Amino acid sequence: MATGIKIENSVGTTLNNVEVIGFDTAIDLVGSNWVNLDGILVSQNTNSFDHLKLYGNKVGRNDFCPCGSGVKLKNCKGASSMSTGIRSDSSTFTVGKATIVAETGIDLKNNSNAHIDELNFYSTDTPEALVKVLMQLPVQPPHNLVVDAMEQQKSVGSIKDSKLWDWFQEQGINLAFWPQIAVAIAGLV
Fold first, then answer.
1. Is residue 23 part of a domain?
2. 101-130 pLDDT tens trace
3. Which of 112, 124, 169, 185 could bridge across to 108 with cysteines, CB 3.0–4.6 Å?
4. What single-letter DSSP state applies at residue 171?
5. How far is 108 from 87, CA to CA, in rounded Å?
6. What is the 3-class SS of 109-120, one letter each residue?
């Protein structure tokens, strides 16, 4: 299991504006207190050309990717998706703002304590194009409403009268974002 950043038995550590991409666990806190995280971006490695930067191999588009996924570089999305964004074991931490694309956003164990101001969490099955559009919004919609909009697009061919549409109106969000979201969802199904 690969870990991007491990902070163990530390007090008062601060991480600002950190991007952790392509690890099983992005940030692992063990026995640490007063850890402050802000401006954190955690995601699986979805760009095949990032593999070349990570592994230093020079291969052609039709060669197998050096990451070990077993697929050709041009089709590779990484050997595995990230399983946990922030894992905490017996630690206390604060998150100012974090965006996490993983199977589990934050995993708290053994009396861990967290204060989170803003967390934008997307499961690994949320399409990358949709994540990019949603990250531009001033307020993140609940994941279940995004899934509902995707299901409605599949069944009736439109998301205009979805629960997501209603949520945008209730939040008072400028619906100028709506065409980008509608195009992103329509392109996925």
1. yes
2. 888 888 889 999 988 888 777 777 676 667
3. 112
4. H
5. 6
6. ECCCEEEEEEEE
Q: Quick check: 39 and 45 in contact, CB under 8 A?
A: no
Tally of CB atoms within 10 A around 22:
22
Cα separation, 166 vs 160, in Å, equals 9
DSSP 46: -
Same domain assignment for residues 120 and 130: no
Please give the model's pTM, rounded to 2 decimal places. 0.60
Do residues 5 and 15 share a domain?
yes
Give me the DSSP letters along 142-189.
PHHHHHHHHHHHHHHS--TTSHHHHHHHHHT--GGGHHHHHHHHHTT-
Is 104 found in the same domain as 93?
yes
Q: Is residue 34 within 8 Å of residue 58, measured between CB atoms?
A: no
**Does residue 96 sit in the same domain as residue 110?**
yes
Which domain, by its residues, includes 17? 1-44+80-124
**How is residue 126 written in tokens?**
């949320």
